[in-house]
Amino acid sequence: IKLSWADERIRGIVWQILVVGIVGSIFYWLWSNTVHNLEVRRIATGWGFLGREAGLPIAEHLIPYDPTDTYFRALVVGVLNTLKVAVIGIVLATILGTLIGIARLSKNWLVAKIAAVYVEVIRDLPLLLQLLFWYTIMQGLPGPRQALNPVEGVFVSNRGLKLPWLEWQAAHSWALLAFVAGIVLTWLYARTARAKQMADGQPRRVWPAALGLIIGLPLAVWVAMGAPWTIEWPALRGFNFRGGATVSPEYFALLIGLVTYTAGFIAEVVRAGILSVGQGQWEAAQALGLRHGSVLRLIVMPQALRHVIPGLVNS
Hints:
Layout: H1 8-40, H2 71-104, H3 109-124, H4 127-139, E1 148-151, E2 154-157, E3 160-163, E4 165-166, H5 170-200, H6 207-224, E5 231-232, E6 235-237, E7 240-242, E8 245-247, H7 249-275, H8 279-287, H9 292-314
Antiparallel strand pairs: 1-2, 2-3, 3-8, 4-5, 6-7
C-alpha cells in the first residue's frame, strides 16, 4: 500500500490520530494535576468515606437509621425519602394537572377562567417561594391540644397530619407485594389478550382475570399469612398524639408545593394535547349523539395522549 500525503484518506486518519492524542493528553494532564494537588493538600479521594460514621440526623426515614450509621446508609435513606415524595407527587400532580387542563377548555366561563388564573399564577411564582408559603401555613396551625379534627380520627396541627393506620406487619408487606404483582400480571394478560384479538378477531374479557389478580391474589396472601385487621387510632397523650400514621409538616408542605406547582405545567401540556386533536373528531362524535364527556373520554383523550406523553416526559 502506497502512503501519500496527497491521499485524502491518509490525511483524515493522521488528523484523527492527532486530535485524539491531543485530547487524551489534555485529559491526562488535568487528571494528574488534580491528583497531585489533592495529595499535596492531603485530601482523601475515593469511596472509602461511605463506610465511615455519618453523624447526620435525619428526621424522616423509611428504614431504620441512626446518626451513628454509615454515610452509605444515610445516602440510601435520602434516596428513599426522595422517592417517597417523587412517586406520590407524580401521581397527584398528573391527576390534578389533567383536571385543570380539561377545565381550561370548559365551556363554563367561570371554570375556565379559574383554571387559567391558577395556571398563570402558579407558573409565575418561584417554586421555593411556594414551598415556604405552604410550610409557613403548616407552622401557623394550632398545636396538638387545639388540633383541627375535620373527620373522626384525623387531626391536623403544627405537628403534622395524624391518620388512622393499620398495625403494619410482615403479612401486610407480602399482601402489598402481591397487589403490585397482580397489577403487572393483569397488564401482561391484557397485552396478550389484545394481541390474540388482533390475530383471530375474537374479543377476550380481561376484567375476570384483573379481578382475580388485583383483588383475589392479595386477599389470598392476606388470609394465608394471617394478617390482622387492627386499626391504630391516633389519640392525644400529653403534648402530642400517639398512634396512627404521621405526615410531618415538612413532608406535607413539600408534597403540596411540588404537586400544585407541577400541576400548572402538566395542565398546559394536557390542554395543548387536547387542542391538537382535530375539530372534526368532536363534530363527528357529536353527530353520533355522544355527550361531551363521552367524546372527551373515549375519542379525544386517547388521541391526545400521543402528544401529551412526550411533553410530560420531556418536562
